[in-house]
């Protein structure tokens, strides 16, 4: 797994596992993603970019949530998006790892 992607997964897992709350996750995630200085694999980037939009849409302001429920996310909705992103990132990483493995030798040489 690419180290940078693992760092994002660690942050996501901390949020999903209840170690940090939605406010802390959103702030840390937005800051990390905005200041990323390493190119990420395209598929991983797309997942992380989607979660960036979700983190940016998070609010605990009930008036905002009520005014534009299709845009703003509450803490539980953000957690659901984070869980989905973690699953997708792990799938992407598994596909990448499978592609980078040398072909297996099946059968015996004669």
Automatic annotation (TrEMBL):
One of its GO terms (biological process) is bacteriocin immunity. GO terms for molecular function: toxic substance binding. InterPro entries: Colicin_D_immunity_dom, Colicin_D_sf. It comes from the Bacteria. Gene3D superfamilies: Colicin D (1.20.120.650). Residues 7-84 form the Colicin D immunity protein domain. Transmembrane segments: none annotated. This is Colicin D immunity protein domain-containing protein.
